[in-house]
Design a protein that fits this description.
Structural class: mainly alpha
Strand content: under 5%
Shape: elongated
Oligomer: single chain
Order of helices and strands: HHHHH
Distance between the termini: 29 Å
Number of strands: 0
Radius of gyration: 17 Å
Number of helices: 5
Number of domains: 2
GO molecular function: 5'-3' DNA helicase activity; single-stranded DNA binding
């Protein structure tokens, strides 16, 4: 994310890395602690709490397929993903 924010590689430019890291640190971003297959309702509850407690206005959910891995087989997994997004 730092490289994207800087718009170029930070690997060889420590000064630019430091400036970009400071700017990034000031952004009001929050990360949820979910990894791998997760219960959709738990994720939604955590998102609702973040909206209430931290006045979050935008949520980026990456990656629904990964989050729901192992929760369905064949076409059922796509139906489960659609149902999760409908919530």
């Amino acid at each position: 994310m730092l490289t994207q924010m800087a718009g170029r590689s930070l690997a060889l430019n420590l000064d630019l890395f430091e400036r970009t890291a400071d700017e990034f640190e000031a952004l009001p971003m929050y990360f949820l602690r979910f990894f791998g297959s997760s219960d959709v309702d738990e994720v939604l509850d955590a998102m609702e709490y973040a909206v209430y407690a931290y006045d979050v206005q935008h949520v980026i959910l990456d990656n629904v397929q990964f989050m729901m891995s192992g929760q369905g087989r064949g076409y059922d997994k796509f139906e489960r993903q659609d149902a999760a997004l409908d919530k």
